[in-house]
Amino acid sequence: MPSLKTPYLLTYNTINTFLWLRILVPILLSPLQSPQTTYTTLEPWTRWTQTLAILEILHSASGLTRSPIFTTFTQIFARSVQVWAINYAFPTITSLSPAYKAMLFAWSVADTIRYSYFVVLISGFPVPGALRWLRYSLFLILYPIGIGSEWWLMFKATIATEYWAVKALYVFFLGLYGPGSVMMYSYMVRQRRKTLAGRA
C-alpha cells in the first residue's frame, strides 16, 4: 500500500540509526579498549544489525527507494560476507586484530550519519547543512578505513582456513575488493559532487 511507504521507511531508518549508534557509542567512550573486548561486546550486535540491512536490497529492487540495485547489492553483500563468513566464523583472528575495531568505527560513524540523514529527509524537514556535508564528505576518510580493514580481516582468514575451497573463495573475494572499492568510491564522489554543488 503506497500510504505505508513513508511510515515504513521512517521506522526502518530510525531503528537503524539507533542500532548503529549503539555500536558507535562504546567505541567512542572506550577508545583504548582492546579489540578482543570490542569483539566480545559488539560482534553479535553488529552481525545482526548488518544482516537487517539486507532489506535494503529488496527496497531498491522493488522501487521502494531510488538507490541503484547493483551498488546497494554490492555493499550489502560484501558486509554480510564480512560479518558472517569472516568475523563470526573466525573469532580468534577477528577478536585479536585492531582492524576489527577500525572497521566497526568506520561502519558505525558512516551508518549513524547516513540513517540520520534519511530520517530527516523522509520526515520532510530541511536537512541541516552540517548533516548533509557529513553524509557526503566523511566517506572520503571512512571508506578507505572500512574497506582496508575488511580486506585485511578476510586476508587473515584466508591464510588461517584449512579448507581449500573456502580459501579459493576468499581469494576470489579479495580480488573483487579492488574494482568493487573503486566503483563504490567513485559512486559516492559523484553523489557528493551532485548533492553539494552550489551549497558551499
Automatic annotation (TrEMBL):
Involved pathway(s): Lipid metabolism; fatty acid biosynthesis
Taxon lineage: Eukaryota, Fungi, Dikarya, Ascomycota, Pezizomycotina
UniProtKB keywords: Endoplasmic reticulum, Fatty acid biosynthesis, Fatty acid metabolism, Lipid biosynthesis, Lipid metabolism, Lyase, Membrane, Transmembrane, Transmembrane helix
Spans traversing the lipid bilayer: 9-29, 113-131, 138-155, 167-189
Native organism: Aspergillus sclerotiicarbonarius (strain CBS 121057 / IBT 28362)
Recorded topology in the membrane: Multi-pass membrane protein
The protein, known as: Very-long-chain (3R)-3-hydroxyacyl-CoA dehydratase
Catalytic activity from the UniProt record: a very-long-chain (3R)-3-hydroxyacyl-CoA = a very-long-chain (2E)-enoyl-CoA + H2O
EC numbers, comma separated: 4.2.1.134
Key word Lyase present: yes
GO terms of molecular function: very-long-chain (3R)-3-hydroxyacyl-CoA dehydratase activity
